[in-house]
Design a protein that fits this description.
By secondary structure, the chain is α/β, with parallel strands linked by helices. About 45% of the residues lie in helices and about 10% in strands. α11 links the parallel β6 (about 255-260) and β7. It is globular, with a radius of gyration of 20 Å.
Length: about 375
């Protein structure tokens, strides 16, 4: 199919057509070509290309999802990220840490609902030792459930507090029960953006370094991107490029999840929310650019069920999690909730077969 795209900034019809042809032929686009698509490609064009790639990678009419619970073990955090409405400063008396009894009740409920994993994340607590997290992992693992936990900023924080190398921290966490690592805390992998929005959090290189060490230890991880705040379009492409480069090196990412920043109740509340149009365009570009990442996940938690359903035609092949519990996005005023039955109905309504999976995309029979 040919696309007629108006000439902008020196890009003519032939240039755009060459990019289209490269994508449809299975070629890898450059960062410069990705920026052209994001700046000048129309929504239909990107959706068509992303859907073609999605069907090439996943020819079966299937959309996967995972049944899990997002447990935030503490809201106490020293990072004070400008985009976060969830954290409590260490001196805030309302901050809390979950007890084992509370953890146990949440895990039992998850198992009763057919859950296969716990997504375990929390704030950067100022003084809990590494042993605290090891004990937490051992307790959760006693229930026999997969632990998808501790994003790179948390792991880096543990290393800083303990004085141990990242690899040693990961080995200890892995021995205590950690199975895989979520891609949280990536935001935008550009240090200008990170220094302005989260100066106390690990750098882009440090985030990638944790993931590389985890991959080398045999752990699978996901990667995320939170966009639509102070970053430029070029910085979004830089983020995608850095994820693709590490994936070329290790092959450890199972999925990529782009989701738009939710500004309500944050320091950046003055910023406009990302539109569904802009979300779908960024989602599609992610599918086009990340040719070495098998799965792209929809973000119904931020976009709601109908846009998430539409995203299945814009490159997404995974509906994400049932999110039995979700606190961070909810703290920013977004309250979408979907049961497993509702997810299956939405997937079927889009013309696909819903299939429950585990973290590594093994199907649950």
């Amino acid at each position: 199919m040919d696309f007629v795209t108006p000439k902008k900034s020196g890009i003519d019809f032939m240039d755009m057509q060459q990019i289209n042809d490269k994508v449809l032929a299975g070629g890898r686009i450059s960062s410069a070509e990705a920026l052209i698509l994001l700046e000048q490609g129309d929504l239909y064009q990107l959706g068509f290309l992303a859907d073609a790639i999605r069907k090439r990678k996943h020819p079966e009419p299937m959309v996967t999802y995972v049944v899990d619970r997002n447990i935030n073990y503490t809201d106490i955090c020293v990072s004070a990220c400008k985009f976060c409405a969830f954290f409590k400063a260490p001196e805030d008396a309302s901050g809390s840490i979950l007890t084992n009894d509370e953890l146990g009740r949440k895990i039992e409920e998850t198992l009763a609902l057919g859950g296969t994993q716990i997504l375990l994340q929390g704030g950067l607590h100022p003084d809990k030792p590494l042993e605290f997290y090891e004990e937490m992992l051992r307790f959760i693992k006693s229930y026999g459930i997969h632990i998808h936990g501790f994003s790179p900023p948390e792991v880096y924080h543990f290393a800083q507090l303990s004085g141990l190398p990242i690899k040693d921290v990961l080995i200890r966490l892995q021995k205590a029960g950690l199975d895989s690592i979520p891609g949280g805390g990536a935001e935008i992998l550009n240090d200008r953006v990170r220094s302005e929005t989260a100066p106390r959090k690990c750098t882009a290189d440090q985030w990638l370094g944790v993931m590389e060490e985890a991959h080398n230890l045999g752990m699978r991880t996901t990667a995320t991107m939170m966009f639509g705040h102070i970053e430029t379009l070029a910085e979004r492409i830089e983020h995608l490029s850095r994820v693709r480069e590490l994936q070329d090196k290790t092959g450890g990412f199972t999925a990529f999840i782009p989701w738009p920043f939710q500004p309500d109740n944050t320091v950046l509340a003055h910023l406009a929310k990302t539109t569904a149009f802009a979300y779908l365009k960024m989602l599609a570009l992610s599918r086009i650019f990340l040719d070495n990442v098998d799965n792209i996940q929809a973000s119904w938690v931020t976009q709601g069920p109908k846009i998430a359903q539409l995203s299945l035609s814009f490159g997404a092949n995974d509906f994400g999690s049932t999110m039995i519990e979700e606190n961070v996005v909810a703290a920013a005023g977004v309250g979408f909730r979907l049961s497993e039955a509702e997810i299956r109905k939405l997937v079927e309504g889009a013309g696909y077969t819903p299939c429950q999976r585990t973290m590594d995309y093994t199907l649950v029979s």
